[in-house]
Structure of Arginase:
Amino acid sequence: MNASTPVVAVPRAAGADASAVMADLARIFHDRAPQLLGETARTFFVEMVSVHVARAPADADLTRAALDQLGIAAGEMANWRQIEDDPASGRRFALMLEHTHALEAWCRAPLLKDDGRPTLLLHIDAHDDLNGPSLLPDADRRKYLAPLGSDVMTLDDPKTVRRFATRGYIGIGGFIAPMIGSAAIDAMLHVPGPAQAGGRGAASLAIGLAPDSGFIRVEKQNCARPGIPYHRMNLAAALEVAHSFDGHILLDIDLDAFCNRYDTHGDSEVQDADALIAMAEAAQLLTASGLPRRAAVTTVALSPGFFPGSLWREALRFANAMRAQSIG
């Protein structure tokens, strides 16, 4: 068994056989080929082998950047995150590599109380991250079921969110859907990055969970239909909207908004110097707006495999500046 290949323990339902479990796992995890390692009366143990041919990462600087800048090995990258609360202000700041851990950071944040005030998500990211995770809905809209077994994730218990994230059920682009499904956010502003400037109100839609779709899935709708308002615009326009918003704010920043070089469909032509300028301009706008000092939660993701490792040193300076304003 390869040390980097995950092994999952699947509870054995009454009458379940190994072939059915293998088929379900293959359907849920498209990039893995399940191989049965063993079984007991209660559990199947399955090695989740990658279907991709082993090769060096596209970003040759990634492993060294993780070690040099954060002191973590390559095998720790997927699950690494830091979540900090300021006891004086109640604000929360979270730094992570994979963006999926933003959901954990939002759960039970001190300032996100059910006080009747709406919540706005300001999402600065090259992607909208409205993918559907491998989760099944529950009658309680703040709870979601694992695709296999009987495990339950509840947004009122961050430990369950952490467990589902590390097992791959949420995914790097599926962490917003549970917030929409639980009505934990009331509107979303999306800033795709400096290359997609846009204007105020550009690409306005409504978003909501698609009904009767099995796994939870976000459906983008025409604004005439019910849903949560979604607006794509540039950062200056988004900050203007946020300034006048009377409610809670989640400030969510993915560094790939400034350089999405290693995405399959990314902006590979963006040079380091241009990315650094875009990052500095964004930091200046955010600082001048005062939003990090107002947001209930500020999250920053480095997104390995999208944002280049060669810029992590500068990216961490950006993150530390946001942290200082949020909880410093």
Summary: The radius of gyration is 20 Å. DSSP finds nine helices and 15 strands in the chain. The chain has a mean pLDDT of 86. The chain has two domains: 7-50, 62-326.
